[in-house]
Amino acid sequence: MANTALILTLEWFLNPDHLPFIAGIYTGAYQDAGLDITMIEPTEHYDGFAALQTGEIDLHVNEPIHLFEHHFEDLKALGCFFVTDGGVMMKQSSMDKLHQNQPIRITTPSANAITNKIGFEILRRYAAQKDLVLEHDKVEFVETDFQHLHHLQHGDAHGDFDGAWLCFYNFEGIEANHLGLSYTFIDQNLSPYPNFSALELMTTHSTFAKKQEAIQQFVKVSEKMTQLCVDDAVRAREIYYGYTNETPSALMDNIINDTLKRLIAAIEPNNERWSALREMLTELDIAAISDAHYEKLWQ
Asked: Which residues contact 257 (CB under 8 A, 6 or more apart)?
């Protein structure tokens, strides 16, 4: 009997956050379970939502914030498999500028109205709890790329950067430590906002109805692969380097080791996990979905 084919589209470039899926493909575990998995890196961050809606793909991975921002009625969340600390990394030398409401420049891979609003809100809430006022026109978000640490160290043609937005601690925090940089990582532990630096696995209700057995098997195998990696960091690193053909390095070893602590073995829908995030996005007038549509996400 032929294996069932499933197409999985990632949110960005392949990285250690995706280790459960990498391990499932590399070890042959998906094949042994009767699945042929094709894993795709997208051209754009939100490509997977459009492809899910048209039925071009079966599964997609993205941050939970986009469950709301790119919601459509048929969307179905399968569960969160990775949670890290995320936020704005500020140079320690620029923290006085932030505290004194002086102009600051922030590098980010995506400077648009929504991401800028959220990045500013994180900084504003951080300042407010210190009884400081941060004015919107004092924070400039500059679109660059994912080389956060490079831009923080070298700036651009218009000057230095004070911080970087859309940072994950298991990447930028670990790299900053590796480089010996002095910084303050303004995440949900320092600023009162609901953490959304995580990855959700999703499909559609229509696709699930057609391929329920295969998708449930995919989730089951992915959970086993998560546990395999978490239990054996040496094996996890071997799998990652073997699949990607990336040259091993001390930095990537550290990133993988930190990422393993953030993987979630039980992948299951949870309608409570992102309720506070939903409230914040409604408050900021970024995205609002009805109670009925919210509950349907997790059915």
From this structure: 233
Report helix, strand or coil for 137: helix
How far is it, in rounded angstroms, from Cα 270 to Cα 199? 13
C-alpha to C-alpha distances, 56 to 18, 52, 110, 175, 299, nearest whole angstrom: 21, 6, 26, 36, 22
Alpha-carbon distance of 49 to 68, in angstroms, equals 11
pTM recorded for the entire structure: 0.94
Task: Compute how many other C-beta atoms are within 10 angstroms of the C-beta atom of residue 291.
Answer: 8
Residues 6+ apart with CB under 8 A from 122: 87, 88, 165, 186, 191, 193
Which residues, other chains included, contact 224 with Cβ-Cβ below 8 Å and sequence gap of 6+? 29
Q: Are 231 and 151 in contact (CB under 8 A)?
A: no
According to CATH, the superfamily of the domain at 86-186 is: Periplasmic binding protein-like II (3.40.190.10)
CATH number listed for the domain at residues 4-83+197-297: 3.40.190.10
pLDDT digits (tens, 9 = 90+) for 22-75: 999 999 999 999 999 999 998 877 788 999 999 999 999 999 999 999 999 999
